[in-house]
Write a structure and sequence with these properties.
The protein is mainly β. The chain is about 10% helix and about 30% strand. It has three helices and 21 strands.
């Protein structure tokens, strides 16, 4: 049982749950860049929210089905076509051997997820199977997929009675414009509160330097040189650092575990999945909130999603 990659695109990897509990070993979280889109796709094929799926970045990808299974596509793709015929996202679809699945490029947003009812075979590391590209670990030989790769399946979770569609109210909106809520970071409090006000006043554009590790934010330089050198300290996905250039740097899922630049802000957990849909040219407006309100927002979001997805967390 397998699926054949006919066109891999710019960067298609196997991603699911992040690696948890190993940051003291220097192992980043990794995992799906957009946890919500992954969860929605997996639910439609009867799998857990963090099950392994195909993460397709920016460009189109084409697959050939070699075994019958159920599929679902959720994300920023312009179109989905099965054997050349348009197929909607956010719906369970049955495919059979010989079917061609074409997932279009992202016009707005950055990533699309293809979930299969069949369990994807992948390398296991530290309790997880997601791909960590920087170290060449997990997933399919620790790398992005290539044309003509054959991805094996372990077994099929499909059930004849699965025929689902995501409720319209729960379908994410993919755009070139984004709002991310943040709390002040360890170096964004106290005497630098004025810096936070400036940071949240103007919008930023994601620069060309962008990857799963992080992205440079282009805009008016922010407090360049106001911080002295500091020892390396813990950083996480969603941490916003301020290098000497004054251009903020937003860390993504593959970000390192420690960093030596001031941590001026942290994207709240409820909004962190949105980082996975940022691309070069995306516009971002940051809005400051409190730690207490960030916790409330996360609980409210989980309550809304659980009405459809059941128990879920967003990393």
């Amino acid at each position: 049982m397998s699926i054949r990659v006919l066109k891999a695109g710019l960067q298609t990897t196997l991603q699911g749950d992040p690696f948890r509990g190993h940051r003291h070993l220097g192992m980043p979280s990794a995992g799906a860049a957009d946890a919500l889109s992954l969860a929605l796709a997996n639910f439609l094929v009867g799998k857990s929210s963090g099950a392994l799926a195909f993460e397709i970045t920016l460009t189109d990808a084409i697959f050939e089905i070699t075994e019958p299974c159920l599929i679902a596509v959720v994300g920023s793709a312009e179109f989905v076509r099965i054997n050349g015929k348009g197929s909607p996202q956010h719906q369970t679809k049955a495919v059979v051997p010989g079917d061609s699945l074409h997932i279009g490029p992202s016009l707005a947003g950055c990533r699309t997820y293809l979930a299969t009812s069949a369990e994807i075979c992948a390398e296991k590391l530290l309790g997880g199977k997601s791909t960590y590209l920087v170290a060449g670990l997990g997933g399919f030989h620790g790398r992005a997929l290539k044309d003509r790769d054959i991805i094996p399946f372990l077994r099929d979770f499909s059930a004849d009675n699965i025929d689902l569609a995501t409720p319209p109210a729960l379908r994410p909106h993919y755009s070139h414009d984004h709002v991310l809520r943040v709390t002040p970071g360890p170096e964004g409090n106290g005497p630098t509160e004025e810096l936070m006000r400036h940071f949240c006043h103007d919008s930023y554009t994601v620069g060309a330097r962008a990857s799963r590790m992080g992205m440079m934010l282009e805009g008016a330089p922010l407090g360049a040189g106001i911080f002295s050198n500091m020892p390396s300290a813990a950083v996480f996905p969603g941490t916003i650092q301020l290098p000497p250039s004054g251009k903020p740097y937003l860390l993504g899922p593959d970000a390192q575990t420690t960093g030596g630049y001031p941590r001026i802000a942290q994207v709240i957990r409820a909004d962190r999945h949105l980082i996975g849909q940022l691309r070069p040219g995306s516009r971002v407006q940051f809005v400051q909130t409190t730690t207490a309100r960030a916790t409330e927002i996360y609980r409210e979001k989980l309550s809304l999603l659980s009405s459809w997805l059941g128990q879920i967390d967003l990393w």
